[in-house]
Write a structure and sequence with these properties.
Elements: H1 3-19, E1 22-27, H2 33-46, E2 48-51, H3 55-62, E3 78-83, H4 88-99, E4 104-110, E5 113-115, H5 117-125, H6 129-151, H7 155-170
Antiparallel strand pairs: 1-3, 1-4, 2-3, 4-5
């Protein structure tokens, strides 16, 4: 790898560290190519990515970035998982580490907040952006579905509702 390629890699890594919602650093020693491809596929499916880079170049890329303190984790055979969604990368790495003991989570960062192993697991347990949107939509749609259910109910139910309203108005 020549100097220009290294500079490009450092620039790319710097962009990743600056713009990602979450960055997770793990050891992957002993993982097969097939296992790494499976991890990459799962990460792609979740909207994230995986990078294996020289630790020295990653440390240079971290200089001056909000998550610069994760440089301490960059020793040995490390893989960097990242995603714009603040939960996706942590979820995938944590789930994969539970199935494969060769992937060992070292820590990570969420913006300026440095995460230890427990912190990464807490972030992984949080609902993803899509899950939060779905629950909000469900809360908003619930009253409308109740009204639609009442309108679609048998006529006797509607008649009893109307008579109850009439009694309250008369009282």
């Amino acid at each position: 790898m020549d100097r220009a390629q290294k500079e490009k890699l450092v620039e790319d890594l710097g962009q990743i560290f600056e713009s990602s919602g979450v960055v997770v650093v793990s050891h992957y020693e002993g993982m097969t190519v097939a296992e790494m491809q499976d991890l990459r596929a799962q990460m792609r499916e979740a909207g994230g990515s995986i990078r294996v880079a020289k630790n020295k170049l990653a440390k240079i890329a971290l200089e001056g970035k909000p998550c610069a303190s994760i440089a301490d984790h960059l020793t040995g055979m490390t893989v960097i998982a990242f995603s714009e969604d603040p939960v996706a990368a942590a979820k995938v790495v944590d789930g994969y580490a539970k199935k494969n003991e060769k992937l060992v989570i070292l820590g990570g960062a969420m913006g300026e907040n440095v995460l230890d192993v427990a912190g990464v697991k807490v972030v992984a347990a949080m609902p993803s952006r899509e899950e939060l949107i779905a629950s909000i939509v469900g809360c908003i749609a619930a009253p409308a579905s109740n009204i639609a259910g009442a309108i679609g109910a048998p006529a006797s139910n509607i008649a009893s509702i109307l008579s109850t309203i009439e009694e309250k108005a008369a009282a």
